[in-house]
Amino acid sequence: MTATIVTTDDELEQIAQLSHKNLRAKISEVQQKQQGFITWEYSFQLLKQMNDLCAHVIVKDKNIVVGYALVALKEASVFHKDLDTMMHHLATLQYKSKSLQQYKFYVMGQICVDENYRGKSVFQLLYQHHKKLFENSFDFIVTEISTGNMCSIHAHEKIGFKIIHTYRDTLDEWNVVLWDWK
Q1: What is the pTM of this model?
Q2: Which uninterrupted H or E stretch holds 120?
Q3: Looking at domain 2-180, what is its CATH homologous superfamily?
Q4: 69: helix, coil or strand?
Q5: Residue 159 near residue 124, CB atoms below 8 Å
Q6: Which of 41, 40, 51 is nearest to 10 (CA)?
Q7: Vertex 68, ends 90 and 39: CA angle to 5°?
Q8: How many helices (H) does the chain have, and how many strands (E)?
């Protein structure tokens, strides 16, 4: 397995399929508790627009995308409605006594590993590659995780993410988590 960045439309299509397959609404409650879930569905078009700003990170087994970790730059909020909502909320938060907006950061738009590759270090490979690519350009990476997704919360804690805020919106209750690289 190899961690790399998206370079083809086929890889974006595979991400869209993996996203669709692992949506919270598509899997059972048992699967959600045991394996985790994702909340936002990504279309090929949205993935492409985001990837044009900054390439997404993927792990491949030969030619098959087995995991992805989407890079969501602040600039993507112009065309990504859910990210725009998230960015407005993040603008109200502070970290180390400074507004989040005073830092250079990007959002983990979503991370997902194919169910046949879970427990095989794909999650860690995705985040290690993010850090390798972006730690010299950004202070940290931030994302939101449903408080009901304990698998994801624990996996992110193992990487080094810390919860900096919790809030509820019309969709769910969320932990805002941050991985500080400085």
Answers
A1: 0.92
A2: none
A3: Gcn5-related N-acetyltransferase (GNAT) (3.40.630.30)
A4: strand
A5: yes
A6: 51
A7: 50
A8: 6, 9
